[in-house]
């Protein structure tokens, strides 16, 4: 069985859990007004999250990526005196209880500025802080280790092997709360499926296979030849993969607005013996997911096992 999910926002609603403020806006405010603003933004994000989760359950969507900015400026020094975890403990409990009740898998993808294999100590420090923030949100919600944090290897720094080795070395520096959730995805320019699979096997963490990225960067390997090894990295957890379609032949690396149903069904039909969660990465978000389902229904194909 394959479960489909989407990232961050529901396309037809302005009320999504990604509301934010800026450092510049906050610095114009007195301390009390600053805290009030931060609380308003986070409360709105909790309200919107609960609405979005209810919509997902109604639509039988049980995989969802939480926006990284869910807690406004959580790792910035401008919020250093704000104990958001304590103030919103009830909201974290409520959201977590709902997620667990309906078996929703919530994941995250820390920002592109979080680079674990960096050779810059200050970037490493901010990366660890960002990863720790994401892990803390899931811990506060009481979510299990299927709520993973997806990251890329990072930069090449003119030496791929050294860059991979530095990732492994600096992974050892992470708090246990992050280590147990961090997973690594192959990218479309630097680190291939083979690079990431070898790395994940060496440090004992799961690999997220991104199918589109593999199509952009490979040495002719067939994904399915490596599928048993990729799935094995997940142990007892449910494997998670990413799927998207290219925008066009001349801009192949860019994601299309929706998913090519023929390509998806060709790929998914070879995974019928497995239970896998697949995040659809496309601009049309939930609408693309629901459109893909309709196309699969027309073809008599339903990997999610939802339709009779």
TrEMBL record:
UniProt xrefs under InterPro entries: Nuclear_transport_factor_2_euk, UvdE, Xyl_isomerase-like_sf
Gene Ontology MF: a single term = endonuclease activity
NTF2 domain: from which residue to which, for each copy? 145-191
Keyword entries, A-Z: DNA damage, DNA excision, DNA repair, Endonuclease, Hydrolase, Nuclease
Asked whether the UniProt record includes Transferase among its keywords, one would answer no
Q: Which PROSITE patterns does the record cross-reference, listed alphabetically?
A: NTF2_DOMAIN
Please list which residues make up the signal peptide: none
Q: What highest taxon heads this organism's lineage?
A: Bacteria
Looking up Gene3D superfamilies in the UniProt record yields: Divalent-metal-dependent TIM barrel enzymes
> Has UniProt tagged this entry with the keyword Oxidoreductase?
no
What NCBIfam families would the database entry show?
uvde
In Swiss-Prot or TrEMBL terms, this protein is called UV DNA damage repair endonuclease UvsE
